[in-house]
Amino acid sequence: MSVLEREVLAKGRRALICYGTNHVRRDGDIIPWIEHVTGRRTYVIVAGTHPRLASAPRRIVVPAAGTWLASADTNDFRYLPGECGEKFGQIFDALLYLGQVGVVTQSLANPAIFLDPEYWAELQRRKTIKESDVNLDEFRLQQSVKWQARPPEQC
Questions:
Q1: How much is the CA Rg of the chain, to the nearest whole Å?
Q2: pTM of the model
Q3: What pLDDT tens digit does each residue of the chain (155 aa) get?
Q4: How far is Cα 149 from Cα 50, in angstroms, rounded to an integer?
Q5: What are the backbone angles phi and psi of residue 40, rounded to the nearest 5°?
Q6: Which long-range contacts does 14-22 make (Cβ < 8 Å, 24+ apart)?
Q7: H or E element: which one contains 45?
Q8: 8 Å CB contact between 44 and 94
Q9: Cβ atoms of 103 and 146 closer than 8 Å
Q10: What angle do CA 119, 125, 130 make, to 5 degrees?
Q11: CA 46 to chain centre
């Protein structure tokens, strides 16, 4: 966030920021901080899919305000860390529709990066700070290019 503060906010600039979904939730850490510092409301777009968008073209941005999307339960989305009863429009402003489950892929880091001792040490350091139970040895063996969609929860 120091780059964001130094290069964008301190200079009164605007920016397109790409962060993970949990970081850009309205109830998360980054968006409330940016809005506090700037006194302005941010516009948050997250990537994902929803069954109601099956006939929509891929890679379009669908605004939530004034549409069914605003009241849609975030648990009905895939690729979002949604929760039962949480309304999309309360957390995000728009959805970048990627396509339906099964056609969306992702690019993974080149596995060779894990052979870099400095990179590996940094991952270990962050794991310790966050007290994470992630098994880094298993993590670096992941090879799937399919974007793993979480199954819907029973609300």
A1: 18
A2: 0.70
A3: 688 888 988 898 888 888 878 888 888 888 998 899 889 899 999 988 888 998 999 999 999 999 999 999 988 876 666 778 889 999 999 999 988 877 777 676 677 777 788 988 898 898 888 887 777 777 776 655 555 556 666 77
A4: 11
A5: -120, 155
A6: 21/46, 21/47, 21/48, 21/79, 21/80, 21/81, 22/81
A7: strand 45-48
A8: yes
A9: no
A10: 125
A11: 6
81, 83, 85, 91 alpha-carbon torsion, rounded to 10°: -40
CA-CA distance, 36 to 104, in Å (whole number)? Answer: 35
Closest CA to 62 of 45, 77, 40, 79: 45
DSSP per-residue letters across 91-135: H-SEEEE--STTT-B-PPPPGGGGG-HHHHHHHHHHHHHTT----
**Token pair of 86, please?**
């949480």
| Both tokens assigned to 37 | 């510092």
**Distance between CA atoms of 22 and 105, rounded to whole angstroms?**
20
